[in-house]
Design goal:
With 258 residues, this protein is an alpha/beta fold. It has a single domain, classed as 3-Layer(aba) Sandwich (Rossmann fold). The protein has 13 helices and eight strands. The longest helix is centred in the last third of the chain and has 18 residues.
């Protein structure tokens, strides 16, 4: 099946290239300004990727989804630094100080800014989580719920789910189906989804729903919430090799440059 037609990537920001991937050196507030402009402007489907070290390592893994994941990142309209690992790598390899604009802060920042003027579709996570996240968001931020759908559906159902989102008239799509799956879905179906801002958000819906906790403020200020999560949750211990591999990759690339 040929992919639906999609709008070409557009960004108003000077881009960097980090380890073969685009990176927009934009602060959280500037990113929110840009996304708010997209929401208020002509209705064009635009994708947002919040880049972290695991994304880069997945793209280099040789897994079947790796090429599609790399393409989804390359075609994204905005690619922000999600965590301290990307900030560190940009400083090491590019000599650039790139601000962080994490997915949770972008999601909640838009909802805080726009309140009831914002229509949000909550897509992903286990059954019941999207509904709970939507309820909390509506109560806390006043947003309108365009729709909800869990993330437990086969790729054969992607067209149906994409059409459901497209018919909802949402201004913001929060897609929480895990790294690669969520970014590839948003990119492949962007012409059908036709949401002004489509963002892969990983565990954000779980945090909003209360089924997962946000890292403590001090870890977020220091940019080490990933370390807090890995240390405190055995299910995340499998992430440690990817993070170690990323550090080694950056060090190798730095030696080549030196």
């Amino acid at each position: 099946m040929a992919p639906p037609s999609s709008a070409p990537p557009q960004t108003r920001l000077p881009r960097l290239e980090l380890l073969g991937h685009p990176l927009d050196p934009v602060s959280l507030e500037a990113a929110l300004d840009l996304l708010s402009g997209w929401i208020a402007g002509p209705r064009e489907g635009r994708t947002v990727v919040t880049l972290n070290p695991e994304f880069i390592m997945q793209c280099r893994s040789g897994a079947p989804h790796a090429a599609g994941f790399s393409q989804a990142i390359a075609r994204a309209d905005l690619v922000t630094a999600d965590g301290v690992g990307i900030v560190w790598a940009a400083r090491q390899l590019l000599g650039a100080d790139v601000p962080r604009a994490p997915g949770f802060d972008l999601s909640t920042g838009l909802m805080k800014r726009h309140g009831q003027a914002l229509s949000v579709f909550f897509l992903g996570a286990k059954p019941g989580v999207a509904e709970a996240a939507a309820k909390v968001s509506q109560e806390q931020y006043g947003v309108r719920v365009a729709g909800v759908h869990n993330g437990y559906f086969d790729p054969a159902e992607d067209a149906r789910v994409a059409a459901l989102v497209g018919a909802s008239g949402a201004d913001l799509l929060l897609t929480a189906m895990g790294a690669a799956r969520q970014e590839i879905f948003n990119e492949y179906w962007r012409g059908v989804l036709n949401v002004p801002v489509m963002m892969g958000v990983g565990g954000v819906l779980d945090v909003l729903a209360g089924t997962a906790s946000l890292a403590p403020d001090w870890t977020r200020r220091m940019g080490v919430e990933w370390l807090w999560r890995v240390a405190g949750d055995r299910r995340r211990w499998g992430r440690a090799p990817a993070l170690a591999g990323f550090v080694a990759l950056v060090q190798r690339e730095k030696r080549k440059k030196g």
